[in-house]
Design goal:
Blueprint (H helix, E strand, L loop, with lengths): L1 H10 L10 H19 L20 H15 L4 H12 L4 H8 L3 H21 L1
């Protein structure tokens, strides 16, 4: 996938408008490519990617199983763009400004979506 991202960047270098940083442009290419590849395979993003999004992740095997169940419950109905936002925030550690630039959402919209996800994760954790 890395090679494909850079190949696309080279091939489409003339389309780079300079409205964002080159790093942001590469993130966008890689995100689109990876999500398209997953969609083509009719698979969802691996649950392991989202375990860290759940509050107070535990190290015991039992707690990890619960975290996986929570991730499936929380992410199952989310669109690919929202899933990508969660990956950017919780796996890549990106700031809200960086995510907003990549997704095209306003900071306000992004904040609302993150809060909804965190509230849903907290409710699920409290209920289990």
């Amino acid at each position: 996938m890395v090679q494909e991202v850079f190949l696309r960047a080279v091939v489409h270098a003339g389309e780079f408008r300079g409205e964002a940083s080159p790093l942001t442009w590469l993130y966008r290419i890689s995100t689109n490519l990876c999500l398209n590849r997953l969609r083509d395979r009719k698979q969802h993003l691996p649950i392991e990617l989202f375990e860290s999004a759940l509050p107070e992740r535990s190290q015991t095997p039992e707690a990890r199983a619960v975290s996986r169940q929570a991730a499936v419950a929380l992410l199952g109905d989310l669109d690919a763009r929202t899933q990508a936002m969660i990956v950017y925030r919780y796996l890549d550690g990106m700031t809200q400004d960086e995510i907003a630039e990549l997704t095209g959402w306003s900071r306000k919209t992004l904040g609302k979506k993150l809060r909804r996800f965190e509230e849903a994760a907290e409710k699920w954790r409290a209920a289990s």
